[in-house]
Each structure stands twice: as C-alpha cells, then as structure tokens.
Amino acid sequence: MFDTLFGAAGFAVPLAALLIVIAVPIMIARAFARRLDQPENFAGYLKRARKGGVDLALIFEHMQWTAAAKWGFVLLVLANLGALVAYHGQRFVTHQAAVLLVWIGANILFGLMILLGRRRVLIVRRPPEK
Which residues of 92-103 are buried (b: 16+ CB within 10 A; e: fewer)? Predict the structure, then answer.
C-alpha cells in the first residue's frame, strides 16, 4: 500500500528528515522571538501596572508528592526495567510487540498515577509597596 501511495518504500524517511531539518529551526526561532517579546522581570511588570492602576499579585506554588505519587514513581521505574528485560528475552517479533504494548500501558497508567498523586498549593500575595 505504501508503494502505491508514494511510489517508493524509501520516500518517507528522507521526507521526514527534511521536515525535521526545516521545522526545528522554525520552532527555535519562534520560541526565541516569544522570549524577546516578554518583559525582563517582575519589576517591569510592577512599574507598568502601577502606572495603569492595575493590581498585581505574586503567586507561589508549593507542590508535595503524596504516597500514591511516590508509589507510582517506584512502579514506573520497575515496570520500565521489567519491560526492558522482557523485551530482550523475547525471540519473536509478535512477543516483542506485546511487551511494547504492555510497556506503553504501564507508562500511561503509572504516569497518570504520578500526575494525579501530587498536591499543589498556590499562595497569592500582594507585591510589596515601594
């Protein structure tokens, strides 16, 4: 099917490499341009906000890992090590594919366990008046 769509089996690899060579510098340039558009520091924000009569706040984030997130991390590491050993122990491609599917599922499951098992606290304060 691939041959009938693109004419040659080796067409996709050079095309993907070319797209990466073009896309990566464009993405870096856009990120650099966005960074230049942002103000230098919080003092600049504060000065402009006081001129315009806008209230600003300092927001501090405190994140704490729960026991579920810690267990999720341990299980994620163990699942990755187990998948690595199981993958190299398989002789057939279909068995390797099954191990890779289990690896993907374990990463999703334990990754969600880590993400959902953290507690975030946001503290909002007014900036000091000068």
Answer: eeeeeeebeeeb
